[in-house]
Amino acid sequence: MKIRKIDNLRFGLAVLVLIVVFAFVLPVFYRVSPYEQDLSNPLSAPSIDHPMGTDMYGRDLMARIMKGTANTLMVSFLASLVSLIIGIIAGVISGFSRGIISELVMRLADVLLGFPKLVMILLISGILSRDIFVSFFLLACLSWMETARIIRGEIKVIKESLLYKSLVAAGLSFPKVLLGYIFPLLRGKFLVSFTLSFASFILIEISLSFLGLGYASPEPSLGTLLRQARYDPAGSYWIVIFTGLIIIILVSAVNFIADGIKDSLEENVSR
Amino acid sequence: MAAFIIRRLIISLIVIFVGVSLTFFLVHLIPGDPTGIFINPALPESVRQGLVERYGLSQPVALQYLKWLYNAVRLDFGYSFIYPEKTLSLIGDALVPTLALTLSSLFIGVLGGCFIGIASAMKKGTLFDRICSTAVMFFYSVPSFWLGLVLLLLLSYWLGIFPSSQIRSIHHEHLSFVGKVFDYIIHLLLPVTTLSLTLMASFAKYTRESMINALSSSYTIGAISRGIDKRKIIFKYCFKNSLIPVINLIGTAVPFIIGGAITVEVVFSLPGMGRLIVSSILSRDYPVVMGIATLMFFFVVFFNMLVDIISHIIDPRVQLQ
Question: Smallest Cα–Cα separation from A240: which of A70, A72, A55, A76?
Fold first, then answer.
């Protein structure tokens, strides 16, 4: 049983590493520009010259998928990092403070959780900002609530523990207790929150770019690539298939990692 | 019970009010006015000025807000900037295909997902469970619109079984009543399949997890040791207890269903909310944007409230924190 659970995590991590290599390292060796158009050769099926075919402007699909994967990964990674950091800060503040501040943070979280995230996503990226990094930063500012709730709950428990009380009694400063003792205890929770929001930000980026509200042309992302294929799926089925394969592999790898971490955390608790 | 519902209602109203107000200021405080987007630049400046005056866009934002709020309370969302129609009737027209799509997908997704989840939890570790879990992981990791593109490619472009777009055929008006219904169904079959597969996957995943927890809990072991019929244990005790996370999931899934519906509608060119939302945001059609945002807030908040009340009824220990 145990071996299979660790396998989940390892399998996911291995696949993710492969994808990162594909997106960031392979372009160094595969010297084809993802932007260079070749209008004499539009929408050609996979061949020796273009292993994954070309798009409607004759751009090499493999180079575009590499660059697109890199773009999708970058923006989702940064957004989930920001939402994790805000979540931790809000969780720590409301976990340690008493009375009005704690209440305020949690009520704010309640109100934000009640928001239709989708409308906010569309409004932010459609009206407020056309820069995808800015709009994903703003999105991250609206997606810290689950993390904050979990961290707050954990801290409430830790605060009552003998460990915490003895650390305080020993006269350790608050930052030292927090960084040296509490954060290491919560590392697993941080990781789960981060991976789950990473997976959801990847899907948000893909959907937004598919709707034309994400990365702007000519910059490719996994969503914009599919957007091009939408007009004529039959005439460009290789775009649908190759881009879709990368998406499935990427997202299921991240989901496997999240499941794996969750399982190993539960095992630690039950032991 | 009544106190619980009233408190929940008050919080919901606050969320809607705060959210809608925030949205209004977000939309209206952006520099530049929307006339710059939809007016023909060749027209003289005075025309644009006239439009700005007529829509009240030159007034202070706070005043515009109060006016909008006053009208919105009376369910008057004004006229669209782009289409010669009332915001409400535009939304009403677009709502029909979207509701047909989302409600039927939700129904199929929840039923199918719970069934698969329970079945694979009971046969945990067998070949059946592995196959189900792999399929669930696959559909869980795939954006629904990609699934839609593939189905479209296979069944409508290559095999030609289903129509590729729109909600009815060109000759729809000449069909008999049964023919019309059949026409709608055949146009909705692919989009509904797409969306319900995605939903089924997430419901199956969560039901399996919570069912496994319930099956290995001490009350189940106690019931088994007391010799209670296994079917009764599974359906009366375990299923009821694992229902709460599933119901909560329906609540949190509603926004995602609407989100999934938007991209699926775009893939299948359905004239629903998805198209209206995206086009009104891109053309800065403020009255329509605000109308949709208000509707969405109501929808999501109402569903969340419903979920809280239902889980309170199933398990009275669930309290409002």
Answer: A55
Token digits for A79? 């957004």
What is the pLDDT at residue B32? 65
Q: Which helix (H) or strand (E) element contains residue A4?
A: helix A2-20
| Nearest-angstrom CA–CA distance, A195 and A45 | 35
Q: Which tokens in the block code for residue B148?
A: 């839609």
CB contact under 8 A, A244 and B149: yes
pLDDT 10s digits, B237-268: 777 777 777 777 777 777 677 777 888 888 88
Q: Which domains does chain A have, with CATH numbers?
A: 2-25+52-270 (1.10.3720.10)
Read off the tokens for B104.
Answer: 């039927």
Q: Residue A10 is encoded by which pair of tokens?
A: 């390892």
A116 to B263: CB separation less than 8 angstroms, yes or no: no
The answer, yes or no, to whether residue A2 has pLDDT greater than 60, is no
For residue A15, the model assigns a pLDDT of 92
Q: Do the chains contact at A126 and B255, CB–CB below 8 Å? A: no
Please count the residue pairs, one from chain A and one from chain B, whose beta carbons lie less than 8 angstroms apart. 121
Topology given in CATH for the domain delimited by B94-314: MetI-like fold (1.10.3720)
- Cα→Cα distances B283→A124, B42, B82, B287, Å: 14, 18, 8, 11
